[in-house]
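Hey, can you fold this?
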Amino acid sequence: MLPLLFVPALLAAPLTPAVQGPTLEGWIFNEAGKPLQATVGLIPMSTRASSLALKSVESLGLPNKKKPGFKLPIPKAGLYLLDVRAKGHLPLQIPILLGEEGLKGMNLMPRPEKPKVELKPVSADALLVRREALYSAFKAREEKGRAALKNREKVDWSADLEALAKALAAETDGDAQGLLAMSYLNLGALGAKLGPEATGLALDKLSAKSPYWVLSPQIMAATYAAAGRNPAFPGFRDAAAKENPEPEVRAYATFSQLAATTRDGDLEKMKALYLTLTTEYKDTAAAKFSKQLDPAKYMGKGVAFPAFSFKDLEGKDVSLDTFKGKLVLVDFWATWCGPCVKEMPKLHEVYAKYKASGFEILSLSLDEKVEAIAPFRADEKHPMPWSHAFLGRGSRDPLLQAINLSTIPRPILVGPDGKIVEGDTLRLRGEYLGTSIEKALKELNLLKPN
């Protein structure tokens, strides 16, 4: 939370320092319409989870219309959260798209913690009121969805999906459209099944240049798939990597380019894109994810899978030789990993279907404690009747170092000769998993009639 700074109400001179360049200026009022002392700051939307402003200024609270209650420098053009904190009032956050020219005359009224009169809108500007309400709802759904994923609970998002789709179809304000579109699409990352028509409508409101992608840039590829627009995604992705104003969005688009290039096995392009991510975008989340695609540790088709030797959960030795002559999916997972748990139905389905053809699974757990695995497998929904070994969270096992593991689930398909058949995570998850397994078995002449 931002610190609250207070000054005597009758100070004659403002305490805000001289500001050069574009500024955001306005007043903060209480529910009685009187100037309110508060701390005002700008949070880049890409760092909204931190709730820390780049720079804050104090609203003077002086009833002097010749001088602004606050005057905040704008670091650079972009999408921000205007963050207002005042004693006795709830935090107020409003998405605001700021340009090089700055913005003046913004009057805001935070909601009191204990209102004594009927609450008024947070601003006289209806568009700002709308955007604040949309962002508050977006944040509430996100918190609810993440909590449900953590607790392995299901949420029925059908009413939210329907309401957001209707609101988006009727909305005319461009910024509100961006917020509504991202609100709809982000539910897909929280476990909702997106409808292709509404997903397509949302994508129509979000060009490759839209700064609102920064709310959830990692969902770009998945939303194009949900809309049935996979062929159009490469063009969108390449445009976003060049033209989006938000570095975090450009970084994720570049990461998607790297992933596609890795699937194609183009090592020179991989090196160039990886260099861009780890230099130009080195401080972004996408750069951290890109470590699993380090060209120096390329885990693509034809590469020998690193040697390993473990004790399985039954105390038996397990190594790559254990699966010689078989097609094995080496799957790094954990019971605490929501996406890993979500993959379980498909893993069980393909294992049952292709086991007779020489398909095996080796699950390598990164749980905190080995004791977490047995209760998980005791659930009839996911008995996981295949080979298991425990590595542990934070493990420094040489295998993890060799493949540069940075995220889970991380499946890698290894052939009977110990060489990788498929190393692309996306092709080994969900509906793509069965297709990749069957294709590999056919190519290896192992597939038996089901």
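Oh, and this one too while you're at it.
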Amino acid sequence: MARILENLTGRRTIQVSTDDIISIVREYQRISGTERNYENIRKLLDRNNIFIAED
């Protein structure tokens, strides 16, 4: 699960696990499918949200 970490300046950092990364990559592959054009992939991703769970 992802964890949001606050630092002293108030900036947030998101710590993600290996499972989170694999989940994000799988979701990316599902959304982009066989599309190979950067601009088209970008449009596909802009129309979708990818969420990861927080602790």
